[in-house]
């Protein structure tokens, strides 16, 4: 076959495919251009999920007449001029490809006026070829109209997702920018209907209320860390608010929306043992870092970045999230509206429970958690004060599964297996640092099943650090001479094998997270089971141990250890406080 140079027309359409993958890509590029133009208001109009029309209008600085045609040329930009500028880039755009790529695959209109000129310019292009350009009387700012997207690239159009999916993705994208750039007024109109409108007053919690609802906005925890290397700012959800996927965890780096699996993992691991397995938090986090520490020129879409010190950033984000969410984890409560639909007033604490304070137990607050986290959470500072459960009075065991206890503000139902898991987990974590082990009278030889052989050497090394004394004794065989003191009453072989169960998720774990995962598996296996009868002394001991835990309200897997039935709820159900 003969080698030849592709025509400019073909080359431009191929290059456009790297930048403009779908309508969402067009909206993102045009919105970022408007933000770079210092717009105070951005109005977006979408028709037919972006295939028929995408219009983005702003009141920014506009483009001078003489430069309008140049703006549609590939690699034409006002953001950088030399290679060193990439190490101090502060604008969202810089590659000079967006407008040229969009114009190459659409019928494109540019209407703009610079604030330094009295007359603007309108430019019409089809498939990247300018067909009309003339001066026009326009207000300051820029309006870009993209029609018939991919009209000249039918193959690309065939592979677009459904209109419903495209609309939802566009709404999510604009919502995220509206949240981060809360000082800009955003208006999104889709298929003739207003979908999102913000007032640009800079209040991010108000934008959260528009995106979700008022209750969710009030409950979100504020994340704010000031560090010489990295600034962290944003919102994360309390443990009571979660989703079935990670889609609502997103990051801005120096004002740029990016996709980074390691950062998402840092957030999810920050919630480890606080959320149920398969549940994920909401997180909207902004990172501010020296531009020289991050490479934004990784992909034409500018959605991927590389950090010079990714491990350091991972640790800072993980620590900030963990400390913030741990400070406000709380007991799941059943409100009166669970059955009756009625609203309740704050339950009063019986004065008879005043001895709880004398015993050193903190009385509960009148509300489950404050509306926001402290303004500053110092990563290097002391651990925040955790919300604890009140002193409880044992009532008894029901169904051989749950313990019933009375508290100063109502009834508590405690899952004995989940509660014992939490007690063992925290005891294990606190004692393994002291290398407390119980040596066996006779060493025990354990054969490892083939299905557990994955990364076995690394896991055994971690288990030895936790208090096991195990050494290789042949192919897939280990000899155990000691086990952690916390589980000295349990079968050594079963405890050892339980820690080696296969991971349900293939995620990179920091060392402490791997230790926690192994401890969690062991505690699940050795904890008392549902259906096991406990003596009164065992029930009392379990409740007292749970009260002393740092995070008593969830088991290490994130399931609740208890639920709370308030006195107010009980009185309403028995008709002792007004009608339902």
Walk me through this protein's architecture.
This protein has 3 domains: 8-201, Histidine kinase-like ATPase, C-terminal domain (Heat Shock Protein 90, 2-Layer Sandwich); 212-326, Ribosomal Protein S5, domain 2 (2-Layer Sandwich), CATH 3.30.230; 393-580, MutL, C-terminal domain, dimerisation subdomain (formyl-coa transferase, domain 3, 2-Layer Sandwich), CATH 3.30.1540. With 580 residues, it is an alpha+beta fold. The protein starts with 7 loop residues before the first helix and ends in a 7-residue tail after the last helix. The protein has helices at residues 8-19, 23-36, 65-68, 98-104, 154-158, 163-180, 204-211, 214-219, 261-270, 310-326, 355-358, 416-432, 456-466, 492-498, 511-526, 536-547, 567-573; strands spanning 41-47, 53-58, 107-113, 120-126, 129-136, 141-147, 185-190, 193-197, 221-225, 230-236, 249-253, 256-258, 283-289, 294-295, 306-307, 333-334, 393-398, 402-407, 410-415, 437-447, 469-472, 477-484, 562-566. The chain is elongated and about 90 Å long. The chain has 17 helices and 23 strands.
Secondary structure: elements and pairs:
Elements (H helix, E strand, L loop, with lengths): L7 H12 L3 H14 L4 E7 L5 E6 L6 H4 L29 H7 L2 E7 L6 E7 L2 E8 L4 E7 L6 H5 L4 H18 L4 E6 L2 E5 L6 H8 L2 H6 L1 E5 L4 E7 L12 E5 L2 E3 L2 H10 L12 E7 L4 E2 L10 E2 L2 H17 L6 E2 L20 H4 L34 E6 L3 E6 L2 E6 H17 L4 E11 L8 H11 L2 E4 L4 E8 L7 H7 L12 H16 L9 H12 L14 E5 H7 L7
Parallel strand pairs: 1-7, 11-13, 16-23
Antiparallel strand pairs: 1-2, 2-6, 3-4, 3-6, 4-5, 7-8, 9-10, 10-13, 11-12, 14-15, 17-18, 18-19, 19-23, 20-22, 21-22
Helix pairs in contact: 1-4, 2-6, 6-7, 9-10, 12-15, 12-16, 13-15, 14-15
């Amino acid at each position: 076959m003969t080698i030849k140079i592709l025509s400019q027309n073909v080359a431009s359409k191929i290059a456009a495919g790297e930048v403009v993958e779908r309508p969402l890509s067009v909206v993102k590029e045009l919105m970022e251009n408007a933000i770079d133009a210092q717009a105070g208001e951005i109005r977006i109009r979408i028709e037919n999920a972006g295939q028929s029309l995408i219009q983005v209008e702003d009141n920014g600085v506009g483009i001078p007449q003489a430069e309008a045609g140049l703006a549609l040329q590939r690699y034409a930009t006002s953001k950088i001029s030399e290679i060193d500028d990439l190490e101090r880039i502060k604008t969202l755009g810089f590659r000079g490809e967006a407008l040229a790529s969009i114009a190459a695959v659409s019928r494109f209109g540019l209407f703009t006026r610079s604030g330094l000129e009295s007359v603007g310019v309108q430019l019409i292009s089809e498939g990247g070829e300018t067909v009309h350009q003339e001066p026009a009387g326009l207000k300051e700012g820029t309006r870009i109209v993209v029609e018939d997207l991919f009209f000249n690239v039918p193959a690309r159009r065939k592979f677009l997702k459904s209109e419903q999916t495209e609309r939802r993705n566009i709404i999510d994208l604009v919502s995220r920018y509206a949240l981060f750039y809360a000082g800009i007024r955003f208006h999104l109109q889709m298929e003739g209907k207003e979908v999102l409108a913000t007032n640009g007053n800079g209040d991010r919690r108000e934008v959260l209320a528009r995106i979700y609802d008022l209750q969710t906005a009030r409950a979100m925890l504020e994340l704010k860390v000031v560090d010489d290397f990295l600034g962290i700012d944003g919102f994360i959800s309390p443990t009571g608010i979660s989703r079935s996927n990670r889609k609502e965890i997103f990051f801005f780096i120096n004002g740029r929306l990016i996709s980074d699996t390691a950062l998402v993992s840092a957030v999810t691991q920050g919630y480890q043992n606080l959320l149920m397995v398969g549940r994920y938090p909401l997180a909207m986090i902004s990172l501010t870092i020296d531009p020289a520490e991050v490479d934004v020129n990784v992909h034409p879409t500018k959605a991927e970045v590389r950090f010079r010190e990714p491990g350091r950033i991972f640790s800072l984000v993980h620590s900030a999230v963990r400390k913030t969410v741990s400070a406000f984890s709380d007991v799941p409560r059943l409100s009166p509206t669970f059955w009756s639909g009625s609203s309740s007033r704050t339950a009063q604490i019986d004065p008879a429970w005043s001895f709880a304070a004398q015993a050193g137990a903190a009385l509960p607050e009148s509300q489950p958690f404050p509306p926001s986290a402290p303004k500053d959470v110092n990563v290097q500072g002391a651990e925040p004060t955790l919300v604890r459960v009140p002193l409880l009075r044992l009532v008894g065991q029901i169904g051989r599964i749950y313990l019933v206890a009375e508290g100063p503000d109502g009834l508590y139902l405690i899952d004995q297996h989940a509660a014992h898991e939490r007690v063992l987990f925290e005891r294990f974590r606190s004692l393994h640092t002291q290398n407390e082990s119980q040596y066996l009278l006779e060493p025990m030889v354990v054969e490892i099943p083939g299905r557990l052989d994955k990364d076995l050497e690394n896991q055994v090394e971690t288990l030895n650090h936790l208090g096991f004394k195990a050494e290789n004794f042949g192919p897939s065989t280990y000899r155990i001479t000691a086990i952690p003191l916390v589980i000295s009453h349990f079968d050594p072989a079963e405890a050892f094998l339980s820690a080696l169960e296969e991971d349900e998720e293939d995620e990179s774990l920091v060392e402490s997270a791997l230790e926690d995962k192994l401890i969690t598996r062991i505690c699940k296996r050795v904890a008392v089971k549902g259906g096991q009868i406990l003596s009164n002394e065992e029930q009392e001991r379990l409740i007292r141990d749970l009260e002393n835990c740092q995070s008593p309200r969830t088991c290490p897997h994130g399931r609740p250890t208890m639920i709370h039935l308030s006195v107010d709820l009980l009185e309403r159900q028995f008709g002792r406080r007004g009608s339902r």
